Amino acid sequence: MAEKNKPDPNATRLGSDEPEKTQMFDNSDATRFVDTPESRGVDFQPGVLIKNRYELIKEIGRGGMGSVWHARDTQFKRLGDRIALKFMLAQWVANPEALSRFKSEAMVSLDLNHPNIINVRDIDQEKGIYFLVMEYLNGQDLHEILTDKGRLDMDEVERIFVDICNALDYAHGSTYKLIHRDLKPQNVFVCEDGTSKVMDFGIAKILDKETMDQISSLTSSGQSLGTLEYMAPEQRKGLDTVDARADIYSLGLILYEMLTGELPVGVFEKPSEVTDGKVPKAVDAVIDQCISQRVEKRFSTVGELKDAFLRAIGKLKGAEGDMDVENLYLQACERVYQDGIIEVEERGMLNELKGLYSLSETQAEEIEQEVRKKYPNAKENKIENRYGSSHIAGINQTNVKLWPFNPNTPDLVLILSFILGVGLNYIGYKILIYVTESFVFGGAVWYYVIMFIAFAAGLLLIVQSAKGLRERYLKK
Q1: 182 included as an active-site residue
Q2: pLDDT value at 64 more than 60
Q3: Which of 56, 123, 137, 447 could form a disulfide with 106 if both were Cys (CB 3.0 to 4.6 A apart)?
Q4: Could you tell me if residue 8 is inside a domain?
Q5: For the segment 18-43, what is each residue's pLDDT rounded down to a tens digit?
Q6: Residues 189 and 314 in one domain
């Protein structure tokens, strides 16, 4: 066996004639970080032995905090070269928070044993450089697949999506009640056999308080860690209330991207519209519920989301599946009713879910009657919000018109706007009288400009406020 940390002349080296292995981790940040492990006495190059056991073969990826090497286990022959080592970059070792995150990722990942989560076998260090021992994967990450193919066919989407749901459902329900918080295509690896695995729990958050006392804190309060494009609004704000529904939000964006080949930016089209009906409209409703800006309107669990998706594409019907469909519809109704206004789009979503869950009109009405008793003041908004929800640069926001043109504007604001409009018209009228009686024509341009603005703004406020009050009256 070769001397520790010295190249083994008999070790296999990857040359230009050996086929390239697909990278297992995102290396988009490689140029932003300079790895200098040599300064700490560790010589990273093919053939070097780490801990007198792991023989390095080739660097296969690099990210913000670590570099990943394909390696061979020289002691446990059964594993052979089917392992990968993830080293913490040298400049982060002196950072207590970064080191804590790295160790916490290892401690959490060691207890996660699921076929759809990358397997972490051990954590160790070599001359102050910490590393994880993980399984080696052959295939591509989802980001690479989407870059090559654009949108995916429904069978492939279903396979990948269900695998991700299974992984997250397991993590959320584990001892740690773990949420990922950085779910994105780069962290989903699709193996050659078609299995998908979720990777990189490096900025995960542990929800179980007792467990948090046993493991170093992964983040400080107020920090928004994650990737902006896929980050839930509450996570971007750095709120302490981030829970599993942040992962559901990110998963909804990934589902949209797999179906359309792009992220929802601006006032985006539904997947059924982008694909000319190839994606069922029921899937639109599932995604809308995932990426709602209001946390309480999203699916409660990943299991519930998976069930709804499989029903939307026709793979589950009636009472099939693990979920009680009547209870699912009840929860969906409560999410819609709780803010007091049932938008046109939300009513459409409930109609889609009613068909999705194979509920009769009588069953659906009985459920809604129960919800109406709980939220007696909720009212239907019969005006369609054409500006809808939009996802821009990772932020789900609602584009609404300014008062008083927004149909959801309170009655008092509409009434005050009407009175303001009358007042502006009165000012315009007084200016007109003054100009006429004083015979001030030449050199009085500003009088006419102010008069015109007062009349125009006043009339606009009066007309729009009256329309808003009329619509509100008709709704009631």
Answers
A1: yes
A2: yes
A3: 123
A4: no
A5: 333 333 333 333 222 233 333 344 56
A6: yes
Q: Count of domains in the chain?
A: 3
The pTM of this model reads 0.63
- CA–CA distance from 260 to each of 140, 150, 156, 255 (Å)? 19, 7, 13, 9
User: What is the distance between the alpha carbons of residues 267 and 397, in angstroms, rounded to a whole number?
Assistant: 10
List 182, 200, 247, 288, catalytic entry: 182
Q: Which of 281, 264, 358 is nearest to 319 (CA)?
A: 358
Q: Are strands 129-135 and 205-206 parallel, antiparallel or unpaired?
A: unpaired
CA pair distance 226, 203, nearest whole angstrom: 7
Regarding whether 390 and 329 lie in a shared domain, the answer is yes
Last residue of a domain, one of 341, 365, 396: 396
pLDDT-derived band of residue 201, with 50, 70 and 90 as boundaries? Answer: confident
Tell me the CA end-to-end span of the chain in Å, nearest whole number.
84
**Mean pLDDT calculated for residue range 360-371:** 90
Q: Classify residue 17: in a domain, yes or no.
A: no
Contact 46, 21 (CB under 8 A): no
Adjacency order of strands within the sheet including 188-191: 139-141, 188-191, 196-198
Whether 196 contacts 164, CB under 8 Å: yes
Angle (CA) 387-389-395 rounded to 5° is: 130
Q: Is the peptide bond before 19 cis (omega within 30 degrees of 0)?
A: no
C-alpha R_g of the chain: 29
Categorise residue 174: left if φ over 0, alpha if ψ from -120 to 50, beta otherwise: beta
Range of the structural domain that residue 464 is part of: 411-475
Instruction: Quick: pLDDT tens for 85-97.
Output: 988 777 777 777 7
The angle subtended at Cα 181 by Cα 179 and Cα 187, nearest 5°, is: 105
Of the two residues 169 and 43, the one the predictor is more confident about is 169
